[in-house]
Amino acid sequence: MKIAVAAPLSGPAAALGREMAQAARMAVEDSARDQPEIGIDIIDDRGDEETGVEIARSLVADESIVALLGHYNSNITLRAAPLYDTGLPLIAPIVSNPTLTDSGWRNVFRFTNRDDATAAAIAQHLIATGKRRACVVVSGTTYGTSMGHEFARAFDGLGGKTLSCHRVEEGETKFEALVEQLPRGIDILFYGGTFEGAPLLRTMRTRGRDVLLATGDGCWDRVNFLEPAGAAAEAGEGVLVLSACPEIGRVQGSREFAARYEQRFGQIGNYAVNAYDAAKLLISAIRTVGRRADRASVGDAIRHTEWRGIAYPEPVRWDEKGDNVSAVTALHVVKNHRFSQVALIPR
């Protein structure tokens, strides 16, 4: 009996995918004394949709796999989910696109928070602190487009005004022309995406644009945002970055897990606690079913499992769609070269 983990272990998001897989492996190893018969298969989807579809077909055909943790990327998960709808339970530790649980797949569970919920939370915070005029920049990805759209919708609905929207390509690094096009009257730039956030911010600061950069959790990322952004993250009005779980140390047990993870794999980049908790919850559901576990019984057990872990202050519970009702939005600024939480907003 095995669980599978599908994530990008190569390509631009490899650091994020490896962290997810390593945290899940720790969960299986930590549970081995009580449930030694559960194995784990870790598979590289390369951050590629076609590879993700091929993996989905192979996992569905492998009867030894009773459940899946994955994928990391929204676009890959959305492409693969209809194949898993044959009955293979899926817990998505990271995927935030609302479509995942709005599509009616009964075997799919979202551990993290949704883009519409996190976008509304950061928009409310910005309106409350006096921000009214925004420009939105999104990467040409499923995640970036969703995050940017949901933010503009929430911000404008709360009385703000989105003056312009701009799309950039994933991997783009030259933003001088874009920064020159930004309206002069904005008091915030919102960025939806991952890899373009740091070079966009650096260009803004070198071009004298000191307005606040607010962004989704694609930039709650030490490797791909915090480190390459450098001093620019604390220049001007700084940055406001959301995440879908509290910073390490805010939830009991998270600091101890982080210390064990760091000793073995290095510093946590973003959502290792989500992956660890999602895997532990999955193992708990399998344990509930026992040796007669199959995909149907495990899926049913997941739906009825409450799990108090290290990612969220309240126990994980699922609503009718398969969303985690205990998910939160945490808001962070950057101080002394690290993310520092300034607000925690329930779903």
Mean pLDDT: 95
**Beginning-to-end CA distance, first to last residue:** 34 Å
Which band does the percent of strand residues land in? Answer: 15-25%
Strand order of the largest sheet: 7-6-8-9-10-11-12
Structural class: alpha/beta
Query: What is the radius of gyration computed over CA atoms, rounded to a whole number of angstroms?
Result: 20 Å
- Could you list the spans in which at least 5 consecutive residues all have pLDDT below 50? none
Number of strands: 12
Number of helical stretches of at least 4 residues: 12
Given the C-alpha coordinates, what overall shape results? globular
Helix share bin: 25-40%
What is the secondary structure topology, with strand pairs?
Elements: E1 2-7, H1 14-30, E2 39-44, H2 49-61, E3 65-70, H3 74-84, E4 90-92, H4 99-102, E5 108-110, H5 115-128, E6 133-139, H6 142-157, E7 161-168, H7 176-181, E8 188-192, H8 197-206, E9 212-215, H9 222-229, E10 239-243, H10 254-265, H11 272-289, H12 295-303, E11 328-335, E12 338-346
Parallel strand pairs: 1-2, 1-3, 3-4, 4-5, 6-7, 6-8, 8-9, 9-10
Antiparallel strand pairs: 10-11, 11-12
Helix pairs in contact: 1-11, 2-3, 5-6, 8-9, 11-12
Question: What does it look like?
Answer:
The chain has 347 residues and is α/β, with parallel strands linked by helices. 40% of the residues lie in helices and 20% in strands. The chain contains twelve helices and twelve strands. β1, α1 and β2 (39-44) form a beta-alpha-beta unit. α5 (115-128) packs across α6 (142-157), α8 (197-206) packs parallel to α9 and α11 (272-289) crosses α12 (295-303). The model has no long low-confidence stretch (mean pLDDT 95).
